[in-house]
Amino acid sequence: MENEFFSKQTTRREILRTSGVLAGAGVLAGLVPGNLLSQPKALAGNLQQVASSADRLAQMKAGWAAIPLQTAKLRDNIYLLSGPGGNMVVLGGADGKVLVDSGIAAAAPKIKQAMDGFGGAPLKVLINTHWHFDHTDGNEAMHQAGAVIIAHENTRKRLSTPQDIAAFGLHFDASPPAAWPQQTFTEGTKLYFNGEQLTLAYFPPAHTDSDISVRYENANVLHMGDVWFNGTYPFIDPSTGGNIAGMIAGAARGQDLADADTKIVPGHGPVGDKAALAKSHDMLVTVRDRVQALKAAGKSKEEAVAAKPTADLDSAWGKGAVKGDFFTTLVYTTL
Ligand SMILES: [Zn+2]
């Protein structure tokens, strides 16, 4: 116990010591909103002042919650909700609404209000793409609003027990039982709502070990969760099973599930298409190959980062929260 506690403290101190990485390299990618990351000095200062994981998490949630909720129509009866958390998608109709991901809890009233504005029957189902808090923090509120929560069994496992994301020095207590998925699956399942078929399918460990895709078969819409960050380097969560090989395989499977007309929703970033997903896939392969070569040549993680294997890619892909050095670290760590 003491050793474990000590190692956690050490990890946290290492993270805080490397505040340049925290801010400049965007360690908090995908878990901290862009409005904070656009002010890296403020973020670094804030994080250094915040001693505990609980306070840091509260600060991240507040940052997310402050982002305005935006809505966009994807197809008839299918809407994108973006802003306070990962990208959400709502399917409406007479059978009741189906929501994919629940955003930040503090934004739940706004999210519910937006869904009410789409008309039709009340919320019936909430699907989680994976366990991370920017996709599940609103679970309890949505369940109280009437939703049955469906997810991969690993999402339930992780929400119902304490978790850590070591890359951020973050600790999560178990979520309240009302936030846990009530219906789970291992490989896949199908829902038939409002004349639509939703096909839910497990990604072998990619961004985490709980990722699924949600495909709207008739409307030709695909939600990839955080297996796709459109236009930027992705965050990968090694603490809960994430790895670069799985991200590459996930991007390949996403292309297999799509045609030229498919609207593909990433966990973070703008809605895209198969061509954009292919570009992300090819970038992941390029970085993996380069980092693999450095590792095979005996380079340490620090030496691999110092070799700048993403230098020519950073202007295109490093504009998001994950910068090249941090992405190199994630790839190296999970090879
Ligand atoms: Zn995530």
Encode the helix/strand succession as letters: HHHHHEEEEHEHHEHEEEEEEEHEHHHH
**Largest β sheet strand count, sense and barrel closure:** 7 strands, mixed
Largest sheet, spatial ordering of strands = 1-2-3-4-5-6-9
Q: Any idea of the CATH class of the domain at 69-283?
A: Alpha Beta
Distance between the termini: 29 Å
CATH topology of the domain at 69-283: Metallo-beta-lactamase, Chain A
Give a description of the structure.
The protein is an alpha/beta fold. The protein has a domain at 69-283: Metallo-beta-lactamase, Chain A (4-Layer Sandwich), CATH 3.60.15.10. The protein is built from 14 helices and 14 strands. The chain has helices at 2-17, 19-24, 34-37, 40-49, 53-65, 108-117, 133-136, 139-144, 153-159, 244-256, 274-296, 301-306, 314-317, 324-334, and strands at 70-75, 78-83, 85-91, 97-100, 123-127, 148-152, 163-165, 170-172, 183-185, 188-193, 196-202, 212-216, 221-223, 263-265. Strand 1 and strand 2 form a beta hairpin. The two termini are 29 Å apart. Residues 1-29 and 34-46 have low confidence and may be disordered. Residues 30, 130, 132, 207, 226, 267 line the site of zinc ion (ZN).
Topology (SSEs and partners):
Elements: H1 2-17, H2 19-24, H3 34-37, H4 40-49, H5 53-65, E1 70-75, E2 78-83, E3 85-91, E4 97-100, H6 108-117, E5 123-127, H7 133-136, H8 139-144, E6 148-152, H9 153-159, E7 163-165, E8 170-172, E9 183-185, E10 188-193, E11 196-202, E12 212-216, E13 221-223, H10 244-256, E14 263-265, H11 274-296, H12 301-306, H13 314-317, H14 324-334
Parallel strand pairs: 4-5, 5-6, 6-9, 13-14
Antiparallel strand pairs: 1-2, 2-3, 3-4, 7-8, 10-11, 11-12, 12-13
Helix pairs in contact: 10-11
